């Protein structure tokens, strides 16, 4: 995956199937709470990471991760 730098942040692209993106777009239209597919996906990934960290807290040291993602904000780990 290539890295793109924008405004001091680094981004990497992912590929989703057209069918999945269309489903996300329909959901966004119905809910009206997300401004883009990217916003929806970022929140979904943050929620999934939090669930995985909680479910596997006995084997995952969240404090050791280089990037922590909580409340929609990306923060460098300490």
Low-confidence stretches: none
The level of helicity is: 40-55%
Main beta-sheet strand count, sense and barrel state: 2 strands, antiparallel
Report the β-strand fraction as a percent range: 15-25%
Strands of the widest sheet, in order across it, are 1-2
SS-based class: alpha+beta
Shape assignment: extended
* Count of beta strands: 4
Task: Report the total helices.
Answer: 2
What is the gyration radius calculated from CA atoms?
Answer: 15 Å
SSE order: EEHHEE
Distance from N terminus to C terminus (CA atoms, Å) equals 26 Å
What is the domain total for the residues?
Answer: 1
Q: Give the averaged pLDDT, no decimals.
A: 81
Describe this structure in words.
The protein is an alpha+beta fold and about 80 residues long. The chain is built from 2 helices and 4 strands. A hairpin with a 2-residue loop joins β1 and β2. The chain is extended, with a radius of gyration of 15 Å. The mean pLDDT is about 80.
């Amino acid at each position: 995956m290539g890295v793109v730098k924008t405004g001091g942040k680094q981004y990497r692209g992912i590929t989703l199937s057209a069918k999945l993106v269309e489903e996300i777009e329909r959901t966004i239209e119905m809910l009206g709470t997300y401004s883009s597919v990217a916003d929806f996906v970022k929140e979904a990934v943050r929620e999934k990471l939090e669930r995985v960290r909680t479910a596997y807290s006995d084997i995952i040291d969240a404090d050791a991760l280089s990037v922590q993602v909580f409340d929609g904000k990306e923060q460098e780990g300490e």
